[in-house]
Amino acid sequence: MTLYLAAFYAYPLYRNVELSLREYTVRSFVQGGAPFAGLDNYRAVLTDPAFGPTLTHTVVFTAASLAFQFTIGMALALFFYKHFPLSRTLRALILVPWLLPLIVSASTWSWMLNSDSGLVNTALGVVGIGPVNWLTSPGWSLTSVIIANIWIGIPFNLVVLYSGLQAIPTEMYEASALDGATGWQRFWGITFPLLRPVSLITLLLGLIYTLKVFDIIWIMTKGGPTGSSATLATWSYRLGFGNLLPEFGPGAAIGNLLIVLALIAGLLYIRIERRQQLR
Amino acid sequence: MTTSTPRAWWKTGVGLVLTGLMLFPVYWMINVSFTRDQDMRATPPHLFPTNGTLDGYRAVLDQQLPYLGTSFLVGLGTVALTVALAAPAGYALAKLRPPGGPALSFVLLIAQMIPGIIMAMGFYAIYLTLGVLNTLPGLILADTTLAVPFAVLIFTAFMSGIPDELLQAAVVDGAGRLRTFWSVVLPVSRNSIVTVSLFAFLWSWSDFIFASTLAGGGDHQPITLGIYHYIGNNNQQWNAIMATAVVASIPAAVLLILAQRYVSMGVTAGAVKD
């Protein structure tokens, strides 16, 4: 196992760090002898005019996705926690968006958000709002990929929060019902505080996952137009594989910046998880 | 609260609406896959495939079968390799308590957090030198990295629950470590094997980043690339694109129906989707 980890995680990671420190071209991959460039790639990336906006997009994309996924997921979890006929089946069906290949979800949303004949614009037209160029205008492209990503993330939040709800002892609700607490009071007084550990884990897992999101954005907008929906992940991919002349060095450098972010989130996750197990 | 009072049925109604809203894009994908080219840009769009056509599906059969076959092979390969690697590792971590075990679990957790693009670049660099770029085994190996850390953690969690007496009984009967693993541990771990296989298959089936970086130039391309090229080459035949999407979603749908229980189990066990 250690061997597998070393061969299939550590080695690619090492190569990636190496990539980021050298000046690679396709030819020097095969023949070797890429000149050592030190931190030049990092400097190039950090001083690139695209760096600021891309970082902002990554933050906005992550924050907006998390906020909506979590809120909607929580609302659905609370709703489906009540037993009623078919609740189990419906809950299972809601998992579908999460299980679909991302390319499928992304292409479906691309078509629904199509400017000329997409369903969304038609629906907006009915209520009198003119067509929006969802995917092709710099002002809307980020919103579009966020909408798609929220949709994909809701089921995950639903399932994890639902399992958190199941762990809350029912006696607490019975006691509060005797005290005459309203539904809203019960939510803020019992459910929310008791669900806090699970919520934290859900949000952190969501954060780690959202930082990695690449497929949806790449398939829907390729990070464009003019970089208006690019995140660190798509930028890194564009540099490495999106052009005829790949720039692996800077691409890998961005990747490594991204991994630092993900690792910080990861370490936080592990800390919180540990602390909960100690209780 | 399990009795079906009128109030409960009212909730079912709301539940149906909510589920309907969530699944609407899926319905729309299916609807468009049956829509004729000339109706595609109709205003208002047809909410039902009236004058439905199977053209889209005909195009899938004509053009996408090789891609589907590749995805299937890659999926099976990934499942086999993942289980073969992760089950013994999980057993070792759960029961044999090797030195460095906790550290290894920690590394596995971290490994799940590495963004795919970084792995893809690393693999690309290695594969180019080794000459396994654009090969099936290369893609399978890369895809296992999506599932192996998750799989080991699931196996470890599950196998720690196997009572020690059961294993000791096997040892008393004269079974060695390997034999105990094979004829006692594996059979009782069936549930976790199903969960792991399910996720390994789904993840490799929907993998796009490894496919496009490591197999994008080869003869064996999975269905995710099939759809991607399709969108790139013609953005007119949306019924064919959506038909391919429907076909590509079938494994997910089938697995969901067959293995509902395992899916929820996997998610709650802390599955981080790539």
TrEMBL record, chain A:
Entries under CDD domains matching the protein: TM_PBP2
Transmembrane domains' residue ranges: 59-81, 93-112, 140-162, 200-220, 248-270
Keyword Transport: yes
Topology of this chain in the membrane: Multi-pass membrane protein
Annotated ranges, domain ABC transmembrane type-1: 55-269
Location in or out of the cell: Cell membrane
One Pfam family this sequence matches: BPD_transp_1
Keyword field: Cell membrane, Membrane, Sugar transport, Transmembrane, Transmembrane helix, Transport
Entry-linked Gene3D superfamilies: MetI-like
InterPro entries named among the record's database cross-references: MetI-like, MetI-like_sf
Family, as annotated: Belongs to the binding-protein-dependent transport system permease family.
Protein name: Multiple sugar transport system permease protein
Native organism: Micromonospora vinacea
Origin organism lineage: Bacteria, Bacillati, Actinomycetota, Actinomycetes, Micromonosporales
Automatic annotation (TrEMBL), chain B:
InterPro entries xrefs: BP-dep_ABC_trans_perm (IPR050901), MetI-like (IPR000515), MetI-like_sf (IPR035906)
The organism's place on the tree of life at top rank: Bacteria
Domain ABC transmembrane type-1: 68-259
Compartments where located: Cell membrane
Entry membrane topology: Multi-pass membrane protein
UniProt xrefs under CDD domains: TM_PBP2
Gene3D superfamilies to which the protein is assigned, alphabetical: MetI-like
UniProt keyword annotations, A-Z: Cell membrane, Membrane, Sugar transport, Transmembrane, Transmembrane helix, Transport
PANTHER family in UniProt: INNER MEMBRANE ABC TRANSPORTER PERMEASE PROTEIN YCJP, MALTOSE TRANSPORT SYSTEM PERMEASE-RELATED
Family in the record: Belongs to the binding-protein-dependent transport system permease family.
Name used for this protein in its record: Multiple sugar transport system permease protein
Native species: Micromonospora vinacea
